[in-house]
User: What shape does this take?
Amino acid sequence: MRPICLIRAPCNLGLRPLRPGHEPGTWRAPQALTDAGLVEAIEPAEIVDMEQLAYHAEAEPGTLLRNGNSLRHFNLELADHVAQAAERGEFPMIVGGDCAVLLGALAGRVREGPLSLIHIDGHSDFRHPGNYDAATTLSAVAGMDLALATGRGDPLMTTWPGVPVPLVPDEQVVQIGEREGRSPGFAWADVNDTAFNRIDVFKAREIGADAVVESALATVSQQDWPFFVHFDVDVLDQTVMPAVDSPGSPGIQPDQLRIILARLIGDQRCAGMTCTIFDPDLDPDSNLAVWLVGLLGDVVSAARADGREGF
Assistant: This one.
């Protein structure tokens, strides 16, 4: 059984401010979840703490990605931590922070070889220069992470030392839980034209957790590669998890999500996991932090109890 390396990544650099003077609170999530019992719930063998970098709402010199240079620095450090955990035979579990930390996690793990990705998120995070004016618009990386991971966008976030571009090829991507792709006027409609295996929230709720897992594993099994899991908590319905920057409905049902996550991270091919976008500023009584820790603890316990070789 692989020991867990918990990497606490306090990042809000990839998010836009919701109003003038606002700073997103996702950087506080690792500590809030720790206070709610995360370490006791998942029992990591190793804990790595990263330093928070200063958030700036305005543009940085040389890039129209908000906090782009700082995000690159943060993700390069994260990549080193993930690569070191993999070298030690550990399962890196990165608790952010916003979705931009997915890039550093992938960049670190891809040093070991090619990788597939299962992206579980209420949004496709597919904003890229092909569907907006990248030359004039200040953009937030957390809404672009899947596009960037598949090689679309600013080289600051697509090109990483010692690894190929893209981090993950389209054919080896599964996207689960997106809720807006069927809506008229969907801003990133070109995601529907990719080779991703797209299991939106409506299909996921229709076919059930086991069928979602089988479809996802069929896609990543096209290559004899490990796969990485990205879990954005906004894939849950806003009535269950409102403490995110972009809540919405419908969402994957909690019981179904437990099954999906446990089966995926319990698979011997799973190379790590990111958990992102929880904002403690929107959870003043910490009830949602306790609930989320319970979910993660249940997932890890179920994966371990499953008796598979991988976890």
